[in-house]
Design brief:
With 94 residues, the protein is an alpha+beta fold. The chain has one domain: Phosphorylase Kinase, domain 1 (2-Layer Sandwich), CATH 3.30.200.20. It is built from 2 helices and 5 strands.
Length: 94
Amino acid sequence: MELSTYGLESLREDADFVLYRGQRDADPRHIFVLVPSSNQPAQSTLGRLEHEYSLRTRLDPAWAVVPLALVREKGQLILVLEDPGGLPLDMLLN
């Protein structure tokens, strides 16, 4: 998956991760991109990304955002997820 072809919009950031929405001009589908917020993340942070990706076959898109890919780009581990539209629930509650 070539992430450089996507325009990214930051949706939220916490101590561990930044969540982006990615889109391409000619593609109506969007993706979520979850990236560690630190340039040198803790092993536990990387482990969370790997664990979430490992659950992809158990998740039902009717109730979960399903991971699409776990990629390493420019030395950084990145989790790519389906984007069903809307906003993350925590953003609606604030």
